[in-house]
Amino acid sequence: MFVVNFKLDFKKIFLVCILVAAIIATIIEFGNNNSKVVNANLDNNYDFVLTEDNYTSILKQIHENIDENIGKTVKMSGFVFRMPDFKEKYFVCGRNTIINNEDTVAGFLCEYDDAGKLIDNEWVEVTGVIIKGEYNGTMPIIKIGNLNKITAPANTFVDN
């Protein structure tokens, strides 16, 4: 008969358990961060990604420097807005903002072949390229490359 006599050191067992838990937590955390980086890289494919926080500042920057921004790419979301005198392929991808205590639509004039199929106030996410165009003067126009219909965000306003 063979008998083994050993003593358990609970402090060492506890430390090994903590170490294993830390390794598992690290693997899970890095796994989540990698997926965030992949999603962030999708937005890095565009020169401008308009969000609630930067919407009006990027809008102003592009309008004030049209020639410098021709050919750059844009990703944004907003609702479909039209003026009665727009050409058939034109609409504004806009957001509500308050200027001088008035609710105003701020956005980019967009050129899209199927613009006639869009419904006013319908929310869309668009990606496209900045071109120079004319509507009551020279202005940047987003030539739409991709358009997806989306659900309106909880806050439809952007800061001015």
Sequence-ordered SSE layout with sheet pairings:
Elements: H1 10-43, E1 48-49, H2 55-64, H3 66-69, E2 73-81, E3 90-99, E4 102-111, E5 123-134, E6 138-149
Parallel strand pairs: 1-2, 4-6
Antiparallel strand pairs: 2-3, 2-5, 3-4, 5-6
Structural overview:
The protein is of the alpha/beta class. It has 2 domains: 8-44; 48-149, Beta Barrel (OB fold (Dihydrolipoamide Acetyltransferase, E2P)), CATH 2.40.50. It contains 3 helices and 6 strands. The protein has helices at 10-43, 55-64, 66-69, and strands at 48-49, 73-81, 90-99, 102-111, 123-134, 138-149. Strands 2-3-4-6-5 form a 5-stranded mixed barrel. The termini are far apart. The relative contact order is 0.15.
Structure, briefly:
The chain is α/β, with parallel strands linked by helices and 160 residues long. The protein contains 3 helices and 6 strands; from the N terminus they run αβααβββββ.
Please give the order of strands in the largest beta sheet: 2-3-4-6-5
- Separate helix tally: 3
Show unreliable segments: 32-42
Could you say what the CATH architecture of the largest domain is? Beta Barrel
Roughly how many Å apart are the termini?
A: 85 Å
According to CATH, the homologous superfamily of the largest domain is Nucleic acid-binding proteins
Number of strands: 6
Measured as a percent range, the helix fraction is: 25-40%
Question: According to CATH, what is the topology of the largest domain?
Answer: OB fold (Dihydrolipoamide Acetyltransferase, E2P)
The first-level CATH class of the largest domain is given as Mainly Beta
Instruction: Provide the structure class.
Output: alpha/beta
Oligomer: single chain
Strand proportion, as a percent range, falls in 25-35%
Global morphology:
elongated
Q: What integer is the average pLDDT?
A: 83
Order of helices and strands: HEHHEEEEE
What is the C-alpha radius of gyration, as a whole number of Å? 26 Å
Largest sheet: 5 strands, mixed, barrel
Q: Give the count of structural domains.
A: 2
